[in-house]
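Before a colleague's protein record goes any further, I have to sign it off. What it holds is a sequence and that sequence's fold in token form. Would you go through it and say whether the fold makes sense for this chain? The record follows directly below this note.
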Amino acid sequence: MNTQPRSADAHDSIRVHGARENNLQDVDVSLPKRRLTAFTGVSGSGKSSLVFGTIAAESQRLINETYPAFVQGFMPALGRPDVDRLEGLTTAIIVDQERLGSNPRSTVGTATDANAMLRVLFSRIATPHIGGPQAYSFNVASASGAGAVTLERPDGSTTREKREFSVVGGMCPRCEGTGTSHDVDLGALYDDTLSLDEGALTIPGYKAGGWMVRFYSESGLVPGDVPIRDFTRKQLDDFLWKEPTKMKFRGINSTYEGLVPRIRKSMFTKDRESMQPHIREFVDRAFTTVACPDCEGTRLSAATRSSTIGGMSIADACALEISALADWVRDLDEPSVAPLLTGLTQLLDSLVHLGLGYLSLERPSGSLSGGEAQRVKMVRQLGSPLTDVTYVFDEPTTGLHPHDIARMNELLLQLRDKGNTVLVVEHKPETIAIADRVVDLGPGPGADGGRIVFEGTVAQLVADGSTLTGRHLAAYVGE
């Protein structure tokens, strides 16, 4: 066996040469891989410009360029950072305090993969058995159908056969997996004394003469020059509630749909807080949001809720606080799913360990604070099988109690010990103290910063005493 060192073994650091992004002043630095490096300095000293604006940005730009041009068209355009050369980059995963996506179907459970593991668990041991994991998913609708298919035989001839399909999903059919029902105030949608052509609609984006209004007034189903209050019963029903119907509109194949379901689909696909202010004001005025009466807000079908483990349905499990759910999973004694239970318990315990035990898996992800969202993202990465990844954190201890900071530090070290490079922009001495290496930028903010004033170990930084960070850390260590 050849034990001679290979040239690949020399690539053990990320090297930055001549970084000038924002206020950086031709910064050169070498960062060891598979270590935890803390970037310190006063606000505005250039920490984020170096870590996020240079290292992480270039890594993500290069990864994006590996996708086909068609896919790149849907991705944000990333410019090359102002830097002479970067060497030794690995895939960068940014774990910041940006809120999680505004999709109303996203929950803490879906964001952490805990829901996926629960679905597998229930599909294996719940009674009555109703199907595979998708039967417990509120994002999968039940569907069935039949039709004829044409099959080609080996001799080149063809034959037609009848085929049927059936998909068993867990989505509540009434609310379509959102858990809410939206009652509409028709008076907030239109002025029934006016015709469509006269501007009867009072919905944002539906202006008289505009395409959205002409689609109704020129459909042939409702008149555009008659006040809405004078519509016949059928015309009013077609205008407000008609199911999606294929039709020609100005010679173009289109789908006609009643006004109310069209608005529901267009305005309730996003989290309320992500709506533009005038649209949010309209939605609050026109719609009353209540828990779906069929699923009672659980998002799940009756069949899915009837399948239980020891009397506990998956809806019940997702409604528990994560700390209580972790105890319930830990008490399950099912050898046939032992590896799954171990993985799920570790995931839930990680959430509890980070101070998120008070959340439930059904909590909408869009309602989480920036700090909560960052910790949820971190837990998701802890369960990832990826290694040799560069994880970039933006002040992960913000808003944490000192006890929770210690737990966060443990998880940062776990990521490092899995063989990853961890870069942390941080101010808290508790987290700076666990770093393998510290890069201190400054000495001041803005034009007075952008230079590396210290680079070395924590012990060397404390002993140096020439920087503000070093003196602050020395005071902490001396307590």
Notes: The two ends are 52 Å apart (CA to CA). Residues 180-291 form a domain with the Helicase, Ruva Protein; domain 3 fold (CATH 1.10.8.280). The chain has a mean pLDDT of 90. The first strand starts at residue 13 and ends at 19.
